[in-house]
Amino acid sequence: MNQELTPIDDEQAIEIFKALSNQTRVSILQMLKDPENNFSSQAHVTKDEGFEGGICVSDIRSKIGISQSTTSQYLTILLQSGLVEMKRIGQWTYYRRNEETMKKLEKYIGLKI
Amino acid sequence: MNQELTPIDDEQAIEIFKALSNQTRVSILQMLKDPENNFSSQAHVTKDEGFEGGICVSDIRSKIGISQSTTSQYLTILLQSGLVEMKRIGQWTYYRRNEETMKKLEKYIGLKI
DNA sequence: TAGAAATATCGCAAATTATAGATATGCATT
DNA sequence: AATGCATATCTATAATTTGCGATATTTCTA
């Protein structure tokens, strides 16, 4: 079946590259690759809510060691570029990787650059 | 035989992402994909010198329409990130894409991010 | 309904990047 | 050796990004 992905355009690609040109934001993405391992609790919460692998802002913050406001801003940048997706559940906001964007980015580099 | 490429590390990847987070620099890379087509003359020069596909700075400049100093600076940024390589021949400096870095970047995104 | 906790947004100073003009350097020609 | 190109580097200013504390907003709970 293999649904074709709509490719990203130059503008979106550049927004992604900007998001990736910061070590802390790249580290956040890398941490989110293995939520179970990097973040002890909560796995069941997001799973039950249909948002498996989602991690809340404060967990990311304590793992990375930057301020709350910077954490929130970085996640917004990652969200707007499409590299992560989020879901609010109660007072928590959970973020997880958007693997589809990763694949699109890989294709963009292979084909368009 | 397929020689394995030494992978790039986070630091180099971020330098590459910075280089790519500018529309003009991305355009330069895209133009260099098809040197024959985008740049009329000179093809034979670089070929004879063992640097096929190389384009000189002033040709790139006139195609893109930015100042000479900005062109030179952008090419230096692309060079330092490894996305292009260069060869000086006489009074000209020729630049061409470094496809190996492209492949490494694709792998980096698929495996490390 | 008054706190408390989690997150987002605002406003700011510091650092970095963008871009260009001016100048320097290297090479070729006379 | 003087001049003319091609390119690189220097210097400066405007624009953007970084990262934080302060404040606002949302949601939960007593």
From TrEMBL, chains A, B:
Put simply, this protein is called Transcriptional regulator
Which GO terms of the molecular function aspect are on file?
DNA binding; DNA-binding transcription factor activity
The family database entries (Gene3D superfamilies) matched by this protein are listed as: Winged helix-like DNA-binding domain superfamily/Winged helix DNA-binding domain
Which CDD domains does the record match to this protein?
HTH_ARSR (cd00090)
The alphabetized UniProt keywords are: DNA-binding, Transcription, Transcription regulation
Q: Name one Pfam family in it.
A: HTH_5
Question: Organism, per UniProt?
Answer: Peribacillus glennii
| Ubl conjugation in keyword set | no
Q: What InterPro entries does UniProt report for this protein, alphabetically? A: ArsR-like_HTH, HTH_ArsR_DNA-bd_dom, HTH_MetalResp_TranReg, WH-like_DNA-bd_sf, WH_DNA-bd_sf
Domain HTH arsR-type, residue spans: 5-113
